[in-house]
Design a protein that fits this description.
- This protein is an alpha+beta fold.
- It has five domains: 2-41, no CATH class; 57-75 and 315-483, Rossmann fold (3-Layer(aba) Sandwich); 91-308, Valyl/Leucyl/Isoleucyl-tRNA synthetase, editing domain (Isoleucyl-tRNA Synthetase, domain 2); 513-690, Orthogonal Bundle (Isoleucyl-tRNA Synthetase, Domain 1), CATH 1.10.730; 694-774, Class I aminoacyl-tRNA synthetases (RS) (hypothetical protein PF0899 fold).
- 40% of the residues lie in helices and 19% in strands.
- The chain contains 26 helices and 29 strands.
- The strands form eight sheets. Strands 3, 4, 5, 6, 7, 8, 9, 10, 11 and 12 form a ten-stranded mixed β-sheet that branches. The protein has a four-stranded antiparallel β-sheet with strand order 2-1-13-15.
- Helix 14 (504-511) packs across helix 15 (513-521).
C-alpha cells in the first residue's frame, strides 16, 4: 500500500507520519470495498457488515496483547543479524516474501595471502576463495573450510595455492595455470586459526575457520565468509567471535568503511570495481558470469541483499519442538501440506518481525536512556489500552511520555528521557494474529479450517501456527486446505506485463457468476488451474445442460400439476425403473456428501453432472415424456414419474447449491418444496438406503446392455435411411426367454416405450440380435407413435382411451 500511495504522487518523507498513514488507510478501505463488491457479486456468504480488518483498532489492540505475551514469555528479542533486505524499499523482507528468480552475476576466484601459518604453513601460500557476490569482499572476515575435507597446497605460476585436493585439475584449468606439483595436503581441521591478509585492508586480517556448511560440490572448498552478509556466515562467525560487519547502507550502497574507491556505489556497481581492484592487486585468479537462482522481493521482483542490521525477532528455537508437534496434530487436506510446513518450521531461523515502514502496527517498544528496551507488563498493557481506544496512529501522534503509564519511572532513565521504536511489525504478524478474532466473536479456538493458496505454507499458515501456539499453546486450526494458482488457458502464470490476466468481474459480466463458480467447481483446485475463453465456453455448455434439465423437470411438477403432499407415490409402489432412478439419485447424494466433506468439489460436481446427463436427461426424462405428456393428469404411472422427478429436483438442487448459488435459488423459487424460503437455508438430505438397491442395479446393468445394442441398431438404421426418427421403428429382438421375461417384467410390458420406438416383438433364440424395420401403420397425432389401429381422427387406441375416460 505504501508503494501504491507513492506511485500516486505522495512522498512519505515530506509529510508527518500520521498524515501519510491516513492516506494509506483511505486507500486500504477503498481496496476493501472493491474486493467486497466482487465477493458479493460472486455469491459468497460472509458477514460482510462486520468483517475483521487488521487496521481496525480492536484488531490492533488484540495484536499488541499477543506481542506483549510473547515478549513477556521471552519469545521476542532484539538482535543484530544478517537478514533479507530490499534496497529498493529500504526495509527488511520476510522469508515468506522471497521468490527465487534466475539472475546473471559475476563469479570471482580470489587469492588471500597467508599472514600467519601458525607453524602449519610456511607463510607464502595463498587460500583461494570463490563468491558470486564480489561486493561482499570488503566485508570478509574469514575463510571457512570443512574439517573433514582434504586440501592441497599446489605450486603454480601464481604461487602456492590452497583449495580442495579433489578439484586441483578442474580449477587449475579454469585459472589457466599449470600444476607444478602438489607440495602438501592437509585436513581442513589442521588449518584452523591460520590468518590471511585481506586484499584491500592489510591491517585487518581474516581468520581461517571451520564449518559444516562447506561442501565440495561447487567452488574451491574455501568459503569466503562475511558474517554481516549471510546466515551461515553469521552463525559460524559467532562461534569464533566475529562481528556482523556490514559496510552497506539501507539503500544498498557501500559505506565509507568500505574505502574511498567504493564509497557510495550501489552493490551491483561495486561488483565491477571490486573485480578490477583485485585484478590490479594480483589477487584475482578468474572471473566468469553465471546465471543462478537468486532471492528477489516477491512484490517488486527486484533482487534483495543480505545485510546485518538490528531488528526485532520472534524466537522459533524456543518453541520449535512444540510447533513441530502441533503440525502433526492438524489434519492436512493436502497430504503433502504437513511435510511442507514441517520442513519449513524445522529449518527456519528466528523470525525477523520488524519492518522499516510507516503503514502498519508499530512495534510497541519504548527505550530507556541507555537504549535498553522496556519490556514490562504494565507498559504493554497501557499501550494496548491506548491502541484499543484510539488506534495505532496514537503511536505516531503522541509524545513518548504519553505512551507510558502516568508517573512511570525507570532506573535506566534517570533523566526521564525515553524514545519510541520507529519500526512496524511484519504484515505476517498482523495476519498471523487473526485467530484472536475467534474468541472476540464468541467462536471456539482453534478454527475448524484455514483455507488459502499453496504459497501460504510459508505465509499465513506458518505465521498463524507460530503466534497461535505461542499464545494459546496449540495450533489455531484443526484442518488446513490450500489451493493452487489460477493460470491462463495455456497454463502460464498470469502477469500484467504479459497481458494474460483474467479479471473475475469481466468473466462474471460476460458469462454470469454461476458459470464462473461452475468452472471453479469442475477443476482440481488443489493444483494449478487454467482459465480462458475455451475453458469457460465448455463450462457454459455444461451449465446450459444443467439449466435446461431443471427447466424441464420443473415444468412437469409445477404447482398446478403436482402436489407433493397429496400426489406422491410411495417407493414401494414405484415401478422398478422408477426405483432404479431413486437408487441412483441417493447414491449420487451420498457421493456428493462425502466429496463435500473432503472439499472435493470436482468429484461432487462430476457425480451430479453424470447422474443428470446419463440417468436423467438422456435416459429417464427422455422415455418418460411419453408418460408425462400422454397419460391422464392423475394417472398413477404419471404420478410415479412425477414423484421421481420431484425427488430429483430436491436432491440435485441441494447438491448444486454450494456451487450454482444463484441458479439453485432460482430453481427453488419455482419448486413446490416449502422446507425453506431459500435452498441455502436447507441442508443436504441424508441419503436413503434401499433394500433392493443391489438387485435393481444388477438387473438394469443387464437391461442397459440390451438398450445400448438397440440404440446402436437404431443409429445404423437411421444412417442407412431405413428410418428417420426412432418412433418410426419396429424392433425385432432375438433373445432367450430369460431376457424377454426380464425386459417385460421389469418394464411392466412397456419395452417399446422404454426404447422410444413404436413396437417391439420378440423371437426366441440363443444369440441375441436386434433388427430394425419401419413400423407399420399411421402416426398418432397426439403421441406420435405409429399404430396399425386408429380411429377416424387418427388417434391410436391408447390416446382415445385417455381422452374418453
Amino acid at each position: 500500500i505504501e508503494n501504491a500511495i507513492q506511485k500516486l504522487g505522495v512522498n512519505r518523507k515530506e509529510m508527518p507520519a500520521a498524515e501519510f498513514r491516513k492516506k494509506c488507510e483511505e486507500y486500504a478501505y477503498g481496496q476493501i470495498e472493491t474486493q467486497k463488491t466482487t465477493m458479493k457479486r460472486l455469491g459468497t456468504v460472509a458477514d460482510f457488515e462486520h468483517p475483521y480488518i487488521t487496521l481496525k483498532k480492536e484488531f490492533e489492540g488484540r495484536q499488541i496483547e499477543a506481542f506483549a505475551k510473547m515478549a513477556l514469555d521471552g519469545l521476542i528479542y532484539q538482535g543484530l543479524k544478517p537478514i533479507y533486505w530490499s534496497p529498493i524499499s529500504e526495509t527488511a523482507i520476510a522469508d515468506s516474501e522471497i521468490v527465487y528468480i534466475d539472475k546473471k552475476d559475476p563469479t570471482i576466484f580470489v587469492a588471500f595471502d597467508v599472514l600467519d601459518g601458525k607453524g602449519v604453513l610456511e607463510g607464502d601460500e595463498r587460500f583461494v576463495i570463490w563468491t558470486t557476490t564480489p561486493w561482499t569482499i570488503p566485508a570478509n572476515l574469514a575463510i571457512c573450510l570443512n574439517e573433514a575435507f582434504d586440501y592441497a597446497v599446489v605450486q603454480t605460476e601464481k604461487g602456492k595455492l590452497i583449495f580442495l585436493e579433489k578439484k586441483v585439475d578442474e580449477l587449475l584449468q579454469k585459472f589457466g595455470l599449470t600444476n607444478q606439483g602438489i607440495l602438501k595436503t592437509f585436513k581442513g581441521k589442521d588449518l584452523e586459526y591460520i590468518t590471511v591478509k585481506h586484499p584491500f585492508y592489510p591491517e585487518r586480517p581474516s581468520l581461517v575457520i571451520l564449518g559444516n556448511h562447506v561442501t565440495d560440490e561447487d567452488g574451491t572448498g574455501c568459503v569466503h565468509t562475511a558474517p554481516g552478509h549471510g546466515a551461515d556466515d553469521f552463525y559460524v562467525g559467532m562461534k569464533y567471535g566475529l562481528k556482523a560487519y556490514c559496510p552497506v547502507d539501507e539503500k544498498g550502497c557501500m559505506t565509507k568503511e568500505a574505502g574511498d574507491f567504493l564509497e557510495g556505489l550501489f552493490v551491483d556497481d561495486a561488483n565491477k570495481v571490486v573485480g578490477q581492484k583485485l585484478d590490479e592487486l594480483g589477487n584475482l585468479l578468474h572471473l566468469e558470469f553465471i546465471t543462478h537462482s537468486y532471492p528477489h522481493d516477491e512484490r517488486l521482483k527486484k533482487p534483495i541483499i543480505f545485510r546485518a542490521t538490528v531488528q526485532w525477532f520472534a524466537s522459533i528455537d524456543k518453541i520449535r519442538e512444540q510447533l513441530l508437534s502441533e503440525i502433526k496434530n492438524v489434519h492436512w487436506e493436502n497430504e503433502w501440506g504437513e511435510v511442507r510446513l514441517f520442513n519449513m518450521i524445522r529449518d527456519r531461523g528466528d523470525w525477523c518481525i520488524s519492518r522499516q515502514r510507516l503503514w502498519g502496527l508499530p512495534i510497541p517498544i519504548i527505550y530507556n536512556e541507555d537504549n535498553s528496551p522496556i519490556m514490562e507488563k504494565e507498559v504493554f498493557d497501557h499501550i494496548a489500552k491506548l491502541i484499543h481506544e484510539r488506534g495505532s496512529n496514537v503511536w505516531f501522534e503522541s509524545d513518548v511520555k504519553d505512551l507510558l503509564p502516568a508517573g512511570y519511572t525507570n532506573e535506566k532513565s534517570p533523566n526521564g528521557n525515553f524514545r519510541k521504536e520507529k519500526d512496524i511489525m511484519d504484515v505476517w504478524f498482523d495476519s498471523g494474529s487473526s485467530h484472536n478474532e475467534l474468541e472476540a466473536r464468541g467462536l471456539p479456538y482453534p478454527a475448524d479450517l484455514y483455507f488459502e493458496g499453496s504459497d501460504q505454507y510459508r505465509g499465513w499458515f506458518n505465521s498463524s501456527l507460530i503466534i497461535g501456539t505461542a499464545i494459546h499453546g496449540h495450533a489455531p486450526y484443526k484442518n488446513v486446505l490450500s489451493h493452487g494458482y489460477v493460470c491462463d488457458s495455456k497454463g502460464e502464470k498470469m502477469s500484467k506485463s504479459i497481458g494474460n490476466v483474467v479479471n473475475p468481474m469481466d468473466v462474471i459480466n460476460k458469462y454470469g457468476a454461476d458459470i464462473f463458480r461452475l468452472w471453479a467447481a469442475t477443476v482440481d483446485f488443489k493444483q494449478d488451474m487454467r482459465i480462458g475463453d475455451d475453458n469457460l465456453k465448455q463450462v457454459s455448455e455444461q451449465y446450459r445442460k444443467i439449466r435446461n434439465t431443471f427447466k424441464f423437470m420443473l415444468g412437469n411438477v409445477n404447482a398446478e400439476d403436482f402436489n407433493p403432499k397429496t400426489d406422491r407415490v410411495a417407493y414401494e409402489e414405484l415401478t422398478p425403473v422408477d426405483q432404479y432412478i431413486e437408487v441412483m439419485l441417493n447414491e449420487t447424494l451420498k457421493t456428493v456428501t462425502d466429496a463435500y466433506m473432503k472439499y472435493d468439489f470436482l468429484a461432487a460436481s462430476s457425480a451430479v453432472m453424470n447422474v443428470m446427463t446419463n440417468e436423467l436427461s438422456s435416459y429417464y426424462l427422455d422415455f418418460t415424456k411419453d408418460i408425462l405428456y400422454i397419460e391422464k393428469m392423475n394417472d398413477k404411472r404419471r404420478r410415479q414419474v412425477q414423484t421421481v422427478i420431484w425427488d430429483a429436483i430436491d436432491i440435485l438442487a441441494k447438491c448444486w447449491a454450494p456451487s450454482l448459488v444463484y441458479t439453485m435459488d432460482e430453481v427453488w423459487g419455482k419448486f413446490t418444496n416449502d422446507e425453506a424460503k431459500s435452498v441455502h437455508y436447507t441442508h443436504l438430505p441424508v441419503a436413503k438406503e434401499f433394500a433392493n438397491a443391489v438387485e435393481l442395479k444388477t438387473t438394469f446393468a443387464k437391461l442397459h446392455e440390451i438398450r445400448d445394442e438397440a440404440l446402436k441398431a437404431l443409429e445404423l438404421a437411421r444412417a442407412d435411411k431405413v428410418i428417420g426418427k426412432p418412433l418410426e421403428a419396429e424392433l425385432t429382438i432375438v433373445c432367450s426367454n430369460e431376457d424377454k421375461k426380464l425386459l417385460e417384467d421389469t418394464l411392466c410390458g412397456k419395452v417399446a416405450q422404454w426404447l422410444i420406438v413404436s413396437k417391439v416383438s420378440f423371437v426366441e433364440g440363443t444369440e441375441r440380435s436386434i433388427t430394425v424395420t419401419p413400423a407399420k401403420g399411421m402416426v398418432c397425432p397426439r403421441c406420435w407413435n405409429i399404430n396399425e389401429e386408429h380411429a377416424e381422427d387418427g388417434l391410436c387406441p391408447r390416446c382415445q382411451k385417455v381422452l374418453n375416460d
